[in-house]
Amino acid sequence: MAKGMAGAALAALMLAGAPAAAQRTLTMAVQTPPSALDPHYHNTTNNTMMLMQIYERLFELDNKAVPQPRLAESMRAIDDRTWEIRLRQGVRFHDGTPLEAEDIPYTFARIPTVPNSPALYTPAVRTISRIEIVNPSTIRLHTHEPNPLMHFDMAAPFILSRRIHGPNPATSDFTSGRLAIGTGPYRLVSFAQNERLEIRRNETYWGPAEPWERVTVRFIPQAAARTAALLAGEVDLIDYVPVQDVENLRRDPRFALFEVDSVTFVYLFPDSMRDTSPFVADRAGNPLPRNPLADRRVREALSLAINREAIATRLYQGLAAPADQFAAPIAEHRLPTQGPLPHDLARARALLAEAGYPDGFRLTIHGPNGFFPSDQALLQALAQQFTRAGVETTVQALPPANLFTRATNREFSLFMTYFSSFLTINPLRQVVATRNPEAGLGPFNRQRYSNPAIDEPLREALITMDPERRQVLTHQAARALLEDKGVLPVIFLRNTWAGRRDRVVYDPSPLNHTSAVHARPPG
C-alpha cells in the first residue's frame, strides 16, 4: 500500500512538472530553410538566423545596430590601420575544445576560399593584411588601408576552431552535422534539409543560459500552412505572417504579434551590362539584336511603371512602404528622404519609344517563391505593371536556393530579391560595386553591374575615417546609383511574427532573424 501511494505521489509530481517541462521547449515555423550549415558558405538572412544559434561572432549587432561583445570583449583602434581585440576567456566549443587566439586568423583565412558560394563573407575581412597574436587573449588586426566599418565587419563572420575544423573543411561536413560545432548557446541535434532543424541548449555555454532546453525549427515555405500550424497548436511561433492573416491574429486573444520596421528593402536587378540578354525578346518572341536593359532609358521606364504606393497599401496592406532609394529608412548615411520614386506610365511609354521600342518588348522576371512575404504575388504585380507600360512580362518564381545559384551564374535578365543592412554604404559595396572578389567588393553583384560614378566615391568612402566626409562620399555614390537605375528599389518591408501568447514572447529583429535567441517564455 505504501509502495502504491509512493508511486501515485511520484506520478502526480511528474504530471505537475509536465507544464514546466513543456515550457522549456520551443517549436518555430519559418519560411525559408538555410542552404547549408557551413557558417561561411552563404551570407544571407535565412542562413544567418539558424547559424547564430550554433556559432558565434566576435560581436553581434543589436536591434539598434550597436555592436555587442560576444567572443570578443572589446576592440579599439590603435591607429587607422591597427585594431586590437581582447578575446573572451573561458569559452569552449561544444565538444569542449577551448577558443584560442589562433582560431581568429584560421577563420578569416577560410572565408574567401569556400567553393561554390553564392555570396561570401569576404567584405568583412577584405582590408586585413595580417593578424598578430599578442598573447592568448589579445590579437591585433593590421589592415592595408583604413577601415571605418571594422566594428560592423567584425559582427559578420562566425568563428570556427582550427583544432576541430582542420584544413579545408567541406561545406557538406557542416550540413551533415559532423562539423557543425560552435561556441553558441545551442548545440545541433539534427538537420533535415528543407524539413527541420533540432537543437538543444548548450549547458556549458559561457554566457547566460538560454530558457529553452530543446528547440525545433520547421521549414514551411507555404504561408497558409505556417498559419494553420500556429492555429492548430503545432508550433509556438511563425515568421513572415501572411498579410491576409495579420488582423485576424491580432484580434485573437490566444496569439500575440511581434512587429518592427525592418532594414530590409526589396529591389529588382536588371542585366544592364551585356550586349544581349537571355530573357528578352521582341513582341513576336524573336531574340533581340541588342539588350534593351543596357539602355538607361529602358531601366527608367521600368522604374516609372512600378506603382510602389499601390503595392505597399493594397498588396501588403500597410506592412510595407514605398522605396525611395537603395537603403533602409533608418540606415546610416542614407540620402535625405525625397518621397517615393515616381510612377508615370505615360512617361514610361515615351522613354521606351525614345529608346527604340515603341511597341515594347517581351521580358521574363525571375524571383523567389518562399523568401519573404507575398514574394510571388509581388512578382505578378510587377509583371502586370510592366505590361501596362508596354513591356509584356511573364514571371518565373523559383525556390530561393535555385534562384540565387542561377542568378550568380548570370542566367536572368531581371530578377527580384532583397537586402538587409543598417548602413547605406553596405549594399553599395556588396551589391552594386564592381565585382572584385580579391578586394571583397560586389559579392552580391550577380548581374556584374559596373559604374565608375559609384565605384570612385565608394572606394574613397570605404577608407575615410571621418564620418562627415564619409557621408558626403556615400551620398555621391547613392545618387549615382539612383540616377543610373542600376537597381530598381521597390518596397521596404515591415517584419511580423505571430506566437502563442501562453508560450512565447519574441524580440522582433529589424534584420528579419527568426531565432531561438530572440525568444523567451512569457512572464
Q: What integer is the average pLDDT? A: 94
Number of alpha- plus pi-helical segments:
17
* Name of the CATH homologous superfamily of the largest domain: Dipeptide-binding Protein, Domain 3
Structural class of the secondary elements?
alpha+beta
The gyration radius over C-alpha positions equals 25 Å
* Architecture (CATH level 2) name of the largest domain: Roll
Oligomer: single chain
The percent of residues in helical segments reads 25-40%
Q: What amount of the residues lies in strands?
A: 15-25%
Query: How many structurally independent domains?
Result: 2
- The shape, in one word, is globular
CATH topology of the largest domain, by name, is Dipeptide-binding Protein, domain 3
